Amino acid sequence: MEGVAWFTHKYVMHGFLWYLHKDHHTGSDGFFEKNDAFFLIFALPGFLGTFFGALNGFNFWFGIGLGITFYGVGYFLVHDVLIHRRFKWMDWFRNTYTKKIIRAHKLHHKSLAKEKGAYFGMLWIPLKFYKSNKYSKKQPA
Hints:
Layout: H1 2-16, H2 18-26, H3 37-55, H4 60-83, H5 96-109, H6 128-131
Helix pairs in contact: 1-2, 3-4
């Protein structure tokens, strides 16, 4: 799922659906963003795959739907709760790995433009983040 998420983030969210994703990079006034619409966009195939896969003897669609759903839960916990701190209840879960995820995501948000982003994944971190202390600096949340 990480590869699918990377591709979707780079070519869909930073592509033809940029108008929904843009406020995630530039900020919004309220608690919700247009970007939150992606929750529904990605939850729908997860639900449909799980539902129809279960109706058809738990076939491969069930596994695909479950994979999308579990990745969505992980995405919410890592991206919205841990990285962006929309909810503060995972602040205790900061370690070397999660700090590097946060740093990579902060570098992704450094660019406010559609085309100039970097680090489109969420859980896979480039090796250079482990080889250099440059990426370990404490960043404000």
